[in-house]
Specification:
It is a single chain. α5 packs antiparallel against α11 and α6 runs parallel beside α9. This protein is 40% helix and 25% strand. By secondary structure, it is an alpha/beta fold. α5 links the parallel β5 and β6. It folds into two domains: 143 residues, Rossmann fold (3-Layer(aba) Sandwich), CATH 3.40.50; 150 residues, Dihydrodipicolinate Reductase, domain 2, CATH 3.30.360.10.
Length: 349
């Protein structure tokens, strides 16, 4: 089956992902959309396909020719763009964060379900061999019952992004916590199979228009058991690529990811180490895996590895953290989700 793709957002990451998609068997790039005339011209020249100034025009002109779209645009635009595509009967791959509002997150998943469409979020750590192994270690009970998680991410992000849309809260929805930090929150929830219960947080903008540093103290739920989590995110780190780490503590040991390897310590103190195959954790192969999974999901050959429900949980945790930082109070994440669900139900009746 050929999967006919439209690309909404033809900037840096959008073009990188297009190049990867164009190399996936069974994919045909049909059309693109971007506000930039230069980006549209470049796309048309490279793919011999039309490009439009916005997603509405793309759908109006090419909707009958599309099976799916990728959305790689400023974060606060995701909800409206994805909703319009889903309602037009088109499957959606949306880059992280899925959206920047809890109500929008719940609404988007409901829209996808209502129209029977694929909705996949671009969290590539679900395809990372060490994060996958960490999840398996937890699932197999090799460290006992999980009760605590500590993790961090640091990146020289603010110097690179200052002056771009990513540091404009009207377009980004927030700073590093909603950008690279979103990957970390997703990784915590996915590897431990937990959902956020409550969050306390502090943030520091360090004179910028968006958060630079964030520290979260969270309670998570793991199948009825409580897990304590601490999360630190900094946009004023040492390297352009994220440096990150995670330790998951169990009643019979712990497992540590340090960016290069996985170290597992069992109840007897015996230690083992897992290292990834060379090149398997680089950006390109991970991006190829997540996009290939989306294509196969559209074709009905696989299930989405990162469904919209994952985006709902991360959005809720992030929004709760921002509210907690602003109010100085611990925020009930599930109450935010319950309110959003009730609002969605009321709107649909």
């Amino acid at each position: 089956m050929d999967v006919r793709i439209g690309a909404i957002g033809l900037g840096g990451l959008g073009r990188i992902e297009l190049g990867i998609l164009d190399d996936v068997d069974g994919v045909r790039v049909v059309a693109g959309a971007d506000v930039s005339p230069e980006a549209r011209e470049s796309f048309e020249s490279e793919y011999d396909a039309p490009a439009y100034a916005d997603h509405e025009a793309l759908l109006a002109e090419q909707g009958d020719e599309l099976d799916a779209v990728t959305i790689v645009t400023p974060h606060t635009l995701h909800h409206e763009q994805a909703t319009t595509c889903l309602e037009a009967g088109v499957d959606v791959f949306v880059e992280k964060p899925m959206v920047t509002d809890v109500n929008d997150a719940v609404d988007l998943v409901e829209t996808a379900d209502e129209h029977g469409r694929v909705l996949q979020v671009g969290y590539q750590r679900h395809f990372h061999p060490l994060f996958g192994e960490l999840r398996r270690v937890v699932d197999e009970g090799r460290i006992g019952d999980v009760h605590m998680v500590n993790c961090y991410l640091g990146q020289d992000w603010i110097d690179v992004q200052r002056g771009t849309w990513r540091t404009n809260p009207d377009l980004s929805g927030g700073g590093q916590l909603y950008d690279s930090g979103s990957h970390l929150l997703d990784a915590v929830l996915w590897t431990t199979r937990t959902e956020p219960v409550s969050v306390a947080a502090v943030t520091d903008d360090r004179g910028e228009d968006v958060d630079v540093n964030s520290a979260l103290a969270a309670t998570l739920d793991r199948d009825g058991s409580r897990v304590t989590a601490s999360v630190g995110v900094s946009a004023d780190g040492d390297t352009a690529s994220p440096e990150e780490g995670m330790v998951v503590w169990g009643t019979d040991g712990h497992v540590e990811y340090d960016g290069d390897r996985l170290r597992i310590v069992d109840a007897d103190g015996d230690e083992s180490t897992v290292r990834p195959a060379e090149g398997s954790t680089a950006f390109e192969p991970l991006t190829r895996k997540k996009l290939t999974n989306f294509v196969r999901s559209v074709a009905g050959e696989e299930e989405p590895a990162v469904p919209g429900e994952a985006g709902v949980q991360v959005t809720a945790m992030t929004e709760a953290a921002y509210e907690a930082a602003e109010t100085g109070r611990t925020v009930d994440v599930q109450a935010l989700l319950d309110d959003a669900t009730e609002e969605q139900l009321a709107a649909s009746t």
